[in-house]
Amino acid sequence: MKLIKLMKEIASDIVSLVYPHICIGCGSIMPVGGGILCAECRAEFDEHDLGRCPVCGRIIYHRGKCRSCNKTKLYFDKGHSLFEYKDNVRNAVLNCKYKNMKYIGIYFGELMADYAEKNSLYGFDVVTAVPLHKNRMRQRGYNQSDIPAAMVAARLNTPCAVVLERVIDTKPQNSLSGEERLKNIRHAFAVKDKEAIKGKSILLIDDIYTTGATVNECARVLKKNGALRVEFLAFSCRAED
Description:
Elements: H1 2-18, H2 39-42, H3 67-71, E1 78-84, H4 87-98, H5 104-118, E2 126-129, H6 134-140, H7 146-156, E3 164-166, H8 178-185, E4 189-191, H9 194-197, E5 201-209, H10 213-224, E6 229-237
Parallel strand pairs: 1-6, 2-5, 5-6
Antiparallel strand pairs: 3-4
Helix pairs in contact: 5-7
């Protein structure tokens, strides 16, 4: 068994030399066995003691709720996020999302599961990922939030299920203003099985929380169809300007 393990390690090292791993943040070449983050980028993936909106969890630099939560009708009950969506955290999210680096989702999932456990996000009946439209799924080949959703669910010992579907192939949210995002995402989701969510508490998993339009619309549809409580956990969030 030791010989087999050694051979696997040697084979892995050879593959790394021929096809070297790059840092998922800055893109620098990593040494063999060096992981997926360089030392400089790793510091950006450490939890920092930042001010947070008590409702959506957005990074803010004042007391009380963020401006968005103060002016928007909210359907989700509470939000959580790990890191600020900027610099190399942003690069890693985009690499996972658009450059077929699906393995980054495993790293995200580990960190999100650690956060969920540390912050006692128990008591949910279902964990689910914010869905992609079938056209986007066909183009990309995967939903970048599926792996983290499964890993968080496993850590919380909670079922992971697909309870929503995206019925409108909307424009990419990142190309729109805040008001345009709200209009763009309206009625984009539908519940797959009302009985599966009726009276249930649901934890939504997503990669980025920006204006909140997407998770809020998901929560609206879930609540409208009988869900009791909806919270979300995002890997990253955009800080309030």
